[in-house]
Amino acid sequence: MTTTTAEATIADARERIDALDDRIIGLIQERMAVSTVVQETRIASGGRRVNLSREMEILGRYRDALGKPGTGLAMTLLELCRGRI
């Protein structure tokens, strides 16, 4: 592979990564909005802001799909969506 071809391949791949990152950020923002609805509804009906058993399910799903780093990713996502507990 020539240097020019490699540079073009890398540039194309980086564009795809940037587009994927934009989509991921949009999905996270959408998840945050949906989570707010869940929290507000739970609180309004007399429940707690956080459902720890549900969070454990989410942590397990990410760990199963992505391995140990998935747990950290899920923790960050949960913190973004519900704030620190």
TrEMBL record:
Residues 4-85 form the Chorismate mutase domain. InterPro entries: Chorismate_II_sf, Chorismate_mutase_highGC-bac, CM_dom_sf, CM_II_prokaryot. Keywords: Coiled coil. It holds the Pfam family CM_2. One of its GO terms (molecular function) is chorismate mutase activity. GO terms for biological process: chorismate metabolic process. Residues 3-30 form a coiled coil. This is Chorismate mutase. The lineage of its organism: Bacteria, Bacillati, Actinomycetota, Actinomycetes, Kitasatosporales.
